[in-house]
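Morning F.,

Quick status update on the modeling queue. The single chain you submitted on Monday has been processed. Sequence for confirmation:
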Amino acid sequence: MRKARFYSSAILAAALTFRSAGLAQDHEAGGNVIPKPLPSDDAIRKSWEAWNAPFKPFRIIGNVYYVGVTGVSSFLIATPDGHILIDTGFEMAVPRIKESVTKLGFRVEDIKILLSSHAHLDHVGGHALMKRLTGAKIMMSEADAALLASGGTTDFTPYSTNMVAYAPARADRLLQNGDKVSLGGTSLICHLTPGHTKGCTTWTMDVTESNKVYHVLFFGSTTVLDGVALVNNPKYSNIAEDFLGTYQKLKTLPCDVFLAPHAGFFGLAEKAARLERDGKPNPFVDSAAYSNFISHAEREFRERLQREQEQFGG
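Structure tokens below.
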């Protein structure tokens, strides 16, 4: 039963990849939304399998390492007093993360804190298992902690419970906007950026490399999933206002190194290859990548919001 539930969850997550790639909907000349059908199950399976393929772990900058899979990110922040892990991916990804951590010369048992970008199955589906393996403390926004505790079943998306469910877990610390999470001389700042989920979180921290300080930003997400209304949404009445506030906040955050929960958002494969090939300058130091991403995403969001307002009022 659990295997079947996870399989359907993975199918949903693969479908979300297609949405993030912009293959979700079209519009009539008058602006009416014409939903496109989701890809076939076979296409989704192939996407999911590729998404969870192993990816060679590596140091990005400072004490920040990539330990995720090909399509879904996980970041290890190593400190002398133990480590912080941002996102555990699917439950199936946890053994790959463990292997990546070991390859880098660290011990998965030394992970002390679990953080997250947002509480969807492709980013926290492995939280319960990782917590059992390490005893790490889960720290999360209050809204996403409630979603995590439900195993993803109380989300506002239109997908069925069977599609979104994952192993539930309980947060050990509830975070507010501006809270600091510190371990071994490293501190991350919590920035609540709701919209994609009600407790979606963007994280910032500073690292020093070659006597220079770099601002690292772990993006939460601003994707509007298929079937989620921005106007007259009974499950999330202030979703448009939250997204607008999130974009305002994101544009104020300093960012030299742009990292994100999906590899495609920040060009993981291409930048990792460049880093391995020559490493100088570090391709992940790319402030323009962040500003361009946010600018493009906000423009698409405002266009979608305007179409819905014209069609449905609000």
